[in-house]
Amino acid sequence: MNLILLGPPGAGKGTQAKLLIEHFGIPQISTGDMLRAAVKAGTEMGLKAKACMDSGALVPDEVVIGIVRDRLQEADCGKGFILDGFPRTVPQADALKSTLAELGKELQAVISLEVDIEALVERLTGRRTCRSCGKGFHLRFDPPGTAGVCDACGGELYQRDDDREETIRNRMKVYQEQTAPLVSYYQRDGLLAAIDGMQDIAVVQSDIRAALLEG
Ligand code: AP5
Ligand code: ZN
């Protein structure tokens, strides 16, 4: 199963990807997570990416295309993969097409998570993530048992640097301008399944699985 999770910042791509990994046993490829790991490791690419990410802008296409091309060739992608946060521009979608053709792979579906803008801002400002295992929480919608502590591993929860309100507004603008055109791009390819992302996390997950069975 080769999938893309498409949707604006805070739509629930990461949350849903984690649940799909458990169900299908295929890896999540999150360019956001990979870039944050590079920033943390202080690599040259990480240092360049940090300025873009902190302002809510996109990292240059050639950087992310290169990362994803390498990652898709790793052994654990043999049974399939869930792309989360990639592609985000038309050139990235075109590059993905040619990379998959080279590797003899095909996309099965593009899941588009649809959420109102006001809800997105509330989701992002309330998001907390575990520093140790990466598990996501929400102060209101998916709170940890003990404030500030990860239920899964006891790690410390933190707020992402780009989840401040002014950066969030810029990320939304960038999404509208550069990523939203991919909805009609994949509609034309006959791959798009639109899902109501305003529902509870578990309901969104079951709608995604139902759409994948139908497709
Ligand atoms: P990235 O990390 O990809 O961020 P994003 O796309 O902005 O998405 P988010 O991770 O913010 O949201 P999500 O949809 O995963 O939501 P989540 O499940 O966490 O990218 C960060 C930056 O990296 C970019 O700005 C860019 O600079 C760079 N970058 C990354 N990829 C790139 C690319 N391809 N090209 C160029 N640059 C790139 O949910 C959010 C919160 O809501 C959580 O707290 C969760 O608990 C809660 N929640 C989830 N679902 C629900 C629900 N149904 N109801 C209530 N609450 C919910
Ligand atoms: Zn944890």
3D structure, described in words:
The protein is 49% helix and 15% strand. With 215 residues, it is α/β, with parallel strands linked by helices. α2 (31-41) packs across α3 and α4 packs parallel to α5 (90-102). The longest helix is centred in the last third of the chain and has 15 residues, at 165-179. The mean pLDDT is 96. The protein binds BIS(adenosine)-5'-pentaphosphate and zinc ion. Zinc ion is lined by residues 130, 132-133, 135, 150, 152-153, 155. BIS(adenosine)-5'-pentaphosphate (AP5) is lined by residues 7, 9-15, 31-32, 35, 52-53, 56-59, 64, 85-86, 88, 92, 123-124, 126-127, 136-138, 141-142, 162, 171, 197, 200-201, 204.
What descriptors fit this protein?
215 residues, alpha/beta, globular, Rossmann fold, binds zinc ion, three-stranded antiparallel β-sheet
